[in-house]
Design a protein that fits this description.
Length: 378
């Protein structure tokens, strides 16, 4: 287990998967009692573990940090577990989670300043935003914090996925054996979509004008759709991991366009649409990053997603379809007594998410255990 803390993505990705499974099992067996705790686990414990695992892997490489990460990863892991237990028994875990985000934010600032790295300032700003929202939640401010937090996490995944897409796009082009080809996603469109999403976050935080939210959501959706043109080459559709990434970007675009219609037409669909955003896009991107980082940073691993991994993305799509669309239709046609709303709304989506992250634990635990971190040989 020592190597799990020395290379933090291992312990934190495994922890995030365990939190996701626990949150879903709680919904299946105790949905009435578990709903608020489920929210804490997904928005704080799961997201905290996911971002800690990625940042403690990427930032030391980008900033050329050579010191041991074990003390920091152990400290953050203890904070994460203590926050979970305190929220479970006493209900004030947001305080410890605000400490967790503050430590992660300060450490990231220290590394970037020390290495004079200005390329990744957007990550630090997103971390600062997550810390502030968690602190406001702890202080019980009367703002629309939960929806805002979800969109801020989406913003964080957009920032991270730009770097990931750069690496994977060039990996796919290597299969053509042409050294003159390189892939560079459109950074201007990325900045436009991130700026519009940040504006949407501010608008949702105070929740003043649904029409403003609608047009900002349309702006985010259509700006993301415009970014897809960078991927419209046959090599990216023939390569399984770039195809999955393309479909995730497409889903993200369509969900935000759909959110625009929800706000504009004042539909009673916001909760369903936001869960679709969570399941299809946010969890999908995070699972994609888990697999990418795990394969890229583990020795003796070929960068190929297994069949089970690909089925995991299908399961998340089904979960979003069940929770975001079919459950709404069942509720709309509630007069038909044979339709079981809870089955579509809670049970089946929860089982789909459980499968996705249980498979991740099953597949990667032995890989982590039996293979060294790529870089230990240097």
């Amino acid at each position: 287990m020592s190597s799990f803390f020395a290379h933090p993505f291992r312990i934190f990705f495994m922890s995030a998967a365990c939190f996701a499974i626990l949150a879903c099992l709680g919904l299946i067996f105790k949905p009435g009692l578990f709903i608020m705790f489920h929210q804490f686990i997904f928005l704080q414990s799961f997201m905290g573990a996911a971002f800690a695992g990625f940042l403690l892997t990427a930032l030391p490489l980008w900033c050329e940090i050579k010191s041991s990460l074990k003390p920091l990863s152990i400290s953050l892991f203890v904070l994460l577990c203590c926050a979970f237990l305190i929220e479970c028994f006493w209900g004030f875990g947001y305080f410890l989670m605000s400490v967790f985000w503050c430590v992660l934010f300060c450490k990231a600032c220290f590394w970037l300043i020390k290495s004079k790295n200005t390329k990744n300032i957007s990550l630090v700003l997103v971390l600062c935003g997550i810390f502030v929202l968690t602190l406001l939640k702890n202080l019980d401010f009367k703002l629309n914090l939960d929806y805002t937090y979800i969109h801020l996490c989406v913003l964080a995944t957009l920032v991270v996925s730009f770097r990931v897409s750069l690496v994977l796009g060039n990996d796919a082009l290597q299969s053509l054996s042409n050294p003159n080809l390189s892939f560079l996603p459109n950074a201007v469109l990325k900045n436009i979509s991130c700026f519009l999403l940040f504006a949407l976050i501010l608008a949702i935080l105070w929740d003043k004008n649904a029409n403003l939210n609608a047009f900002l959501a349309f702006g985010v959706g259509f700006s993301l759709l415009s970014r897809l043109s960078s991927w419209h080459y046959s090599v990216f559709f023939r390569t399984h991991y770039t195809l999955i990434l393309y479909l995730l970007f497409l889903a993200l675009s369509l969900v935000y366009v759909g959110l625009g219609f929800v706000y504009l037409l004042d539909l009673s669909y916001l909760g369903f649409a936001t869960h679709a955003l969570n399941l299809l896009v946010l969890l999908g991107f995070i699972l994609f990053i888990f697999n990418t980082v795990s394969l890229k940073h583990t020795q003796n691993q070929i960068f190929i997603f297994s069949l089970g991994t690909r089925l995991s993305f299908v399961a998340l799509f089904l979960a979003a379809l069940l929770r975001g669309i079919l459950a709404y239709l069942v509720l709309y046609f509630a007069s038909f007594s044979w339709l079981n709303f809870e089955l579509f709304y809670i049970i089946l989506p929860a089982f789909c998410v459980c499968f996705s992250f249980a498979y991740f634990i099953f597949y990667y635990f032995s890989i982590y255990k039996n293979n060294a971190f790529k870089g230990d040989e240097d």
